[in-house]
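Async update (no meeting this week)

Hi team, since we skipped the sync, here's where things stand on the single-chain job. The sequence we agreed to prioritize is pasted below, unchanged from the tracker. I ran it this morning and attached the output directly underneath so nobody has to dig for it. Comments welcome in thread, and please keep replies under the output.
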Amino acid sequence: MNLGELAKHLKAELVAGEGQTLEAAALRAIVGVAGIETAGPTHLTFIANPKYAAQARTTRAAALIVEPGFPAIQAPTLRTPNPYLAWSRAIEFFHPAPSYEPGIHRTAVIGHTSRIGVRAHIGAYVVIGEHCQIGDDAVLLPHAVLYDNVRVGNRFLAHAHAVVREGCQLGDDVVLQNGAIIGADGFGFAKNADGRWTKIVQSGPAVLEDAVEVQANACVDRASVGETHIASGVKIDNLVQVGHGSTVGQNTLLCSQTGLSGSTTVGKNVILAGQVGVAGHLTIGDGAVATAQSGIPSDVAPGAIVSGYPATDNRTWLRTVAALNRLPDLLKRVTLLEKHIKNDE
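Output:
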């Protein structure tokens, strides 16, 4: 594909490089995508972070995706308000997702009372329990398991070893990466008089709305009563734990190794960065951000940016960390002052 055609596909404005005509730029052949450091003369690359702007003048790439106000450089540019999104679409164009032919593998086990939509691909050793409903164009790859009474929408994609437990409900365009577990028992136990723990039955399903993706080895637990609810557009990273009875709002990101204790309410458009821990029975407001390794023991206001443990305002936390790094020097100074005072006495 030439650069002019690619610009149309990405809905970006093509701007010629320094000393180049637009017609010549449009005819440049593009055969793939690559990072700015490794791109060659037939590759497309991008810049979304200003710290890489200097590399734009030295890259060997055929063209770069940039923001509209990016300065002119020697290479042609594709200008768009969201370079990162355009870049993702360029990657998808040159590396399309695998396609799977409709059909049911001879080793799959499917309950007689279950209903599967048209054009489904059911891979080797898939197990689908009784009374399940699966929408059109579903893809279940080897060893995926759906327990009884599961409902999933159209274009469901379950990678190998994904599991959906009994009674759970998933919307359209849901993706489960390898080893994702939806609806395993929540962590609920009551202590007996003799000190032993008795399991609390986890009766409520996990519900995932449309366009939710749960990545590898992440867990969304079922609820003791009611349901665990994941709203549309939520993306859950590897090794995330969503505790029983929690609610996560639309388009929220839960990054790797984040843990939500039971009955946590997370609002819309929230970002919880890697290894954030959230205590149970609290609320995180819409648009809030918790930076990596924050520990959240209490409610977080909408739009707040918090850091550290216990999580506090991000700017306050940064000042605290800066002061902490100065403590050894301050300790030395205090020790010297104490010596001077003793000598003066």
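Quick observations from my side:
The longest strand covers residues 43-46.
The helical segments are 3-10, 22-26, 83-94, 314-325, 327-344.
Reply here if anything looks off.
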